[in-house]
Amino acid sequence: MIQKPVTEVKGIGEKVAEQLATMNIYTVEDMLEYFPYRYDIFEKKPLHELIHDDKVTIEGIVVHDPSLTFYGRKKSRLTFTVEVDGVAVKAVMFNRSFAKKQITSQSWITLTGKWDAHRLQITVSNYQLGRMEEKSAIKPIYSVKGDFTSYKFQKLISNTLKDSVTEIKEILPATYLDQYKLPSRENAVKTMHFPKDRVELKHARRRFIYEEFLLFQLKMQLFRKKHRESTTGNRQDFDQEKLTSFIKSFPFKLTDAQNRALKQILNDMKDPHRMNRLLQGDVGSGKTAVAAICLYASVTSGQQGALMVPTEILAEQHFQSLQQMFGERAEIALLTGSVKGKKRRELTEKIENQKIDIVIGTHALIQGDVFFKNLGLVIVDEQHRFGVEQRRVLRDKGLHPDVLFMTATPIPRTLAITAFGDMDVSVIDQLPSGRKEIETLWVKANTFDRILDFVRKRVDEGEQAYVISPLIEESDKLDIQNAVELYHQLEAYYSDDIRIGLMHGRLTANEKEDVMRQFAENKIQVLVSTTVVEVGVNVPNATIMIIYDAERFGLSQLHQLRGRVGRGEKQSYCILIAEPKGEIGKERMRIMTETTDGFELSEQDLQLRGPGDFFGKKQSGMPEFKVADMVHDYRALETARDDASIILENNLLEEEDYQQVRSILEEEINRMEKLD
Ligand code: ADP
Ligand code: MG
């Protein structure tokens, strides 16, 4: 079949095969699916439309026989004049002395090269005798390694195609080929390497985009289905009455969106399958309350719960608020990296004996010395800050708890259906009533005095402010230095009637805790901080968020920071101090002032940054596609997702038309079965 080694192609020996291997090409199939990464498109345009320094293609009649001059060793220059649309254009060609004989006066010639619009001169890189056959020509450009040139590589592709083109089998079901008018796989492969025109190329690409997405979606959805059916799940028989009374003890009524999400999660917990669910909700939408109820559900079913958060500050804060909410209902403990020695041993022993019902902590929670007797539910807050690896650790410890990931970074629909195609998703898309929209302003640095006066007025009214110091990405140290400087500056400015606090990553856990407590108790009115306060921190009395050098942050991060205010009943403000140089920076500031809707913001962020940057490259685990692009082709992605779910719902993989897809997936299915 087409899985045969490349050496079976005429003209490919061991030596060439070795080079191909460095490009991860081993089989004929690898070879044929090694598509160009871009195409040079030559289009004939009138002279006056040509752009200086661009690569252009022109055709004309040679006026004189070319003249050839040699210089240096073996170096030559060939020059001649061509009449193009009645204009004399000078052509220059280097080191192609042999062309002198071919190019003759009064004959047509097509030239491609760099255009000098001032001198009406073309430096030729490519020429063809005669007129252009078509109005345009497309040249594929491959990403090659070693001795290959794109041209040489294309030759090999050409040989391979001659050899094996008939062996390229269709894999997409005829139903969908017809429905979307996609070219056959055989034709599409040929076109990708030797496109005749743009339209043909577009359809070939369309075909592969759909193929990649459909297979990907089928894999993801199969995986999710397996997960659902897996018997190693966890059934939690919680006490609904106790839950109801717990919810009644809250000082507020749950929003409809909270209730809806809660119901979905509790259903999963009750069910014997293992929950794998993402809870999305904008900052301040009340995810913590929902998390608390779910943790309590585990406790009433006789099991333990764990809440993992990304920072110690956040762990501390959740610990306090949960203790307050739960009262006598459950034993709650805080376990972070700074709990050490004897204290730690005592705590881990209690966890092991289930003397503790709920543990809150950073990833210290899942480290080697922590064992749970009966872990029913794990909640991971701000999950994108946890590496994929850390998520697996619990499972590898032989624990099969229900898992709920929570995130306040609204994940764009486009990414959610790919990155999390294997998860169920609940969304809290509603803020508790009575909240006022945060007013966001974008100002220049020279207005700082006015901003400080504004802060003073608010503080006089009993409110509080955050000031985020400039971020220096390359250096932790400079970051902190900046914060310290700003802190001193503000202290001097306000002399002693306003107390300033300082928060950054180098403080010890105790120091951080101390600062946060003082801020929460309004003993500190203005908190200068690096971005460590970004996630989850909740001080409802703070109404002003000032962000220095805001252009250095991504939209999601700005939104997170902004989410630290607007948590109470009072009007809140977010002030972005920024002087962005580039268009993207300006665009970001504009978007921030225009919307407070996290979902809309995240879509825009994705457009500006691209998917790789969205979660940070390392953690993203984003799938890679050969042709498709998740952002630009997301409509195709949605189509493929819907088709995949129809295929699986109706068990169509069993049918004749789906044999090829099925056999491709089978390998994947086997792998999954080993995993579970
Ligand atoms: P998130 O974790 O989603 O950012 P929190 O759970 O911290 O949001 O909630 C933000 C604030 O809103 C908290 O002070 C919380 O007590 C309060 N809150 C939560 N749910 C409601 C509700 N249904 N009605 C009013 N206030 C609520
Ligand atoms: Mg369950």
TrEMBL record:
UniProt GO molecular function: 3'-5' DNA helicase activity; ATP binding; ATP hydrolysis activity; DNA binding
Question: Some GO term, biological process aspect, for this entry: which one?
Answer: DNA repair
Pfam families according to UniProt: DEAD, Helicase_C, RecG_dom3_C, RecG_wedge
Outline the extent of the Helicase ATP-binding domain: 268-428
Where do the Helicase C-terminal domain residues begin and end? 447-607
InterPro entries named in the record: ATP-dep_DNA_helicase_RecG, DEAD/DEAH_box_helicase_dom, Helicase_ATP-bd, Helicase_C-like, NA-bd_OB-fold, P-loop_NTPase, RecG/Mfd, RecG_dom3_C
Q: What is its EC number?
A: 5.6.2.4
Swiss-Prot/TrEMBL keywords: ATP-binding, DNA damage, DNA recombination, DNA repair, DNA-binding, Helicase, Hydrolase, Isomerase, Nucleotide-binding
Q: Which reaction does it catalyse?
A: ATP + H2O = ADP + phosphate + H(+); Couples ATP hydrolysis with the unwinding of duplex DNA by translocating in the 3'-5' direction
What superkingdom heads the lineage? Bacteria
- PROSITE patterns recorded: HELICASE_ATP_BIND_1 (PS51192), HELICASE_CTER (PS51194)
Q: Which SMART domains match?
A: DEXDc, HELICc
Q: Which family does it belong to?
A: Belongs to the helicase family. RecG subfamily.
Write down the NCBIfam families for this protein, in alphabetical order: PRK10917.1-3, PRK10917.2-2, recG
Instruction: Give the protein's function.
Output: Plays a critical role in recombination and DNA repair. Helps process Holliday junction intermediates to mature products by catalyzing branch migration. Has replication fork regression activity, unwinds stalled or blocked replication forks to make a HJ that can be resolved. Has a DNA unwinding activity characteristic of a DNA helicase with 3'-5' polarity.
Protein name as catalogued: ATP-dependent DNA helicase RecG
